[in-house]
Design a protein that fits this description.
5-stranded antiparallel β-sheet, 12% helix, myosin II binding, cell membrane, disordered C terminus, V_SNARE_CC, disordered N terminus
Length: 1075
Amino acid sequence: GLARSPAAAQHGLVAGPAGAAPAAVHTSPAGNRETEIQETLQSEHFQLCKTVRHGFPYQPSALAFDPVQKILAIGTQTGALRLFGRPGVECYCQHDSGAAVIQLQFLINEGALVSALADDTLHLWNLRQKRPAILHSLKFNRERITFCHLPFQSKWLYVGTERGNIHIVNVESFTLSGYVIMWNKAIELSSKSHPGPVVHISDNPMDEGKLLIGFESGTVVLWDLKSKKADYRYTHDEAIHSVAWHHEGKQFICSHSDGTLTIWNVKSPTKPFQTITPHGKQLKDGKKPEPCKPILKVEYKTTRAGEPFIILSGGLSYDTVGRRPCLTVMHGKSTAVLEMDYSIVDFLTLCETPYPNDFQEPYAVVVLLEKDLVLIDLAQNGYPIFENPYPLTIHESPVTCCEYFADCPVDLIPALYSVGARQKRQGYSKKEWPISGGNWGVITQSYSEIIITGHADGSIKFWDASAITLQVLYKLKTAKVFEKSRNKDDRPNTDIVDEDPYAIQIISWCPESRMLCIAGVSAHVIIYRFSKQEVTTEVIPMLEVRLLYEINDIETPDGEQVPPVPTPGTGSNPQSIVPQSHPSTSSSSSDGLRDNVPCLKVKNSPLKQSPGYQIELVIQLVWVSGEPPQQITSLAINSAYGLVVFGNCNGIAMVDYLQKTVLLNLGTIELYGSNDPYRREPRSPRKTRQPSGGEKAQLVIYRSRSSSVTSIDKESREAISALHFCETFTRKADTSPSPCLWVGTTLGTVLVIVLNLPPGGEQRLLQPVIVSPSGTILRLKGAILRMAFLDTTGSLVPPAHETWREHHEDKDEKEKAKKRRPVSVSPSSSQEISENQYAVICSEKQAKVISLPSQNCIYKQNITETSFVLRGDIVSLSNSICLACFCANGHIMTFSLPSLRPLLDVYYLPLTNMRIARTFCFTDNGQALYLVSPTEIQRLTYSQETCENLQEMLGELFTLVETPEAPNRGFFKGLFGGGAQSLDREELFGESASGKASRSLAQHIPGPGGIEGVKGAASGVVGELARARLALDERGQKLGELEEKTAAMLYSADSFSKHAHEMMLKYKDKKWYQF
């Protein structure tokens, strides 16, 4: 049964425990010890909800800043809203419609925000709660919204439309005023044609009664709100993109589509006071400069001590082809052109004051780029940028895979942080990050979490993900071990991918030993060891492996005898290290086919390796008789055994990375030995005999049919899909567990390989590791995804591992190390004979629990009939363990262990794309994540306890900040009518004055709010108490004069919640969101 509605889980609401799912098939004989394990996990331990979203907002479209609260808001083309405060305070919200956000407007210091969307809706967000919610929405039916303006400390929002009209919305009730400024009345007879959409609205900083309206065609109107007519009209023949006031209200500046700026004196409408072309080439004999690209936005900011700043985006000359997008800062006589890495979506100048009629004192510029957020320090010479503390670089190179680890060793994050700290860039601003609003949540988690992301350029990033935050710790560039081809023509013709030859496909990491292994797209594997010391590696250790897959599907000419399969012992073709001086001896076989060459070339010069991850060994698969190596599909490393194993659709290879030798190199079919259920005929490796002419011809046909990596032939091949090192029973007759490797394939087979390891210390480096198939074969439906082992009590048996120690030690230490046996944390081999283990195997279709050594399947669960599992993980939760699965049909399910009882089944994601499928992973303690967009990680929890603690852990966006003093207007100015003019807008726009708005123009939609929203509404912008506070301010009482208690109560959302109940009783006829 499904939990609640699909929508519920999608909106981060909670989805309860699973309904009646099919009971697990239990097949163990009665009275067997195996059934006695007490399982503690129940459905009520599980609940699914989204926790946090990290990363750069994908496809941003709008920007706003609250200068008092110091909170930044970004809207996106898919209707997302991201709010940023001090580092660690972040929040993600979503408009249900998914329409693009075209503009955002804070109600400054009120804990609220208005969003305008491309579907002509306006929404009021309450930010006084940890999870912001919409209090009201307004949908325009007949006109399209193009520009909004909300004056500071006003409740009347001006909304400009495509038709050139301006409507006025009361942000408290979210209703329209009857006061409308019609375009024809605004321009009267100044122009014969329609002036175009409204592109700008603002009030004169010194006179709230005068509204400046910019129309796209080039006309600007100064409208007198009281007399309802235009005071001045300014006409210009170039289209307008933006308008900005000088704070004294006597001048304004416009930016135009021909790359010019015009500055106008308010009282001289006939022609601009000055025209500037910031990037125009000044021609001789007074000719007009050549036109430039449009200036998309301009801001005009004054300073007490010096010249004003004019800041603009766009406006470059047309001959700057290939020039990067620029922000231009003009200050007095100097003009600085700041190049950006991506195109500019919007920018805002941060100023010391929220009051438009005071000296602005700009101190920074926030520039929102298509794929980055940049803050520029205006106060420092050369305008340096601030170091960005938010985790916005997830997508620096596209993410190709990720892994998630909870409950890591405590020293791991500090170790990664210290090596990562050396990688920091220099030259940032010395100042503190200016977006500093909000408060951190309470940390209720004590364990550390690490996320590792692999990227298209071969880089790997380690992130500290503890307590729902994210911070980059360390970055490793795996590509630097390879020779870079300078240009396209110079590229080795051995490439099997057109671009990103270094892209990371699989990451295998052992947190305890810190050993790291990666598989890349060019069929390469690199093993890394962690060290705190810098080393220079003279010769990079490397191995080349020929992995063959040959079925006797072509008639053998001349009735030639097929030689027997080499018996796997030390491997069918053991190789030692390939000397660097002469890489692969032959680059093509005798018949001219590319042979024995890897896809990438390892550098043959010494490599300086900084502290952090350092190369232990590079392994590359090579071309075989004109066939490129196939991409690696599975990978595992074990630090206690010193082994790495990997496989693809051709077969499997195992490497001893301590001795740098290949131990096993088998085609998938050879793994079965004589037990192959598919009756496939293996054929000897081609290199052992000279192919005859007839075969060559057929070979060419075969290649032309299957030169693409995803040819039918290779798709149907059996690939290695899961690998797991463990210490368990390998055969039915075993009396004690021993080290082995369990191998799972895409055809649902599990095979066991026995590992015979030499003793530790010096002997480990001298004696060979012997590997041999055990003959044990198990079968499931669908490709094998994951394997794990439980002991006789039902607890997880982790694979053996070493603990980390510095590898580059001095001589005395080395002597001690030789005597020291590696610490192998694994079950002792002196287990009683009667003690059994359980293998847990999860495939794309089903899960089985198999008792060892008897190999009886005691529990079986068919996970999905119609879909398939994309990711399955055996994870710990609440001192117990379970199997967590994510299905291609969007379901998230959990099952108890060992009995495989269904505990949770929630329809979470209706649409699963390749990116989600490739990045989804579960980890311990009820955590999971996936890449929700190319730039963002979505984290979720399936733990009921975490869902309950989430509210505490989330940061607060709204904090208690007193609005700064208004600028002193001076005694005489006030007396003689100079200075700023205020206006009673209520008198003009209220219903009594302007009448009701046309009902068909827009409809009011109450917001969902949520229970938290009740508190929020009682405490928020629209609450009765907020009005009381405004009334107090108007009576000229300063908050400082009130009793502290009252002031705190008026501001703090917490105490509001206590009043919320009384408020609701008072308004029980009205719903709270209609206040």
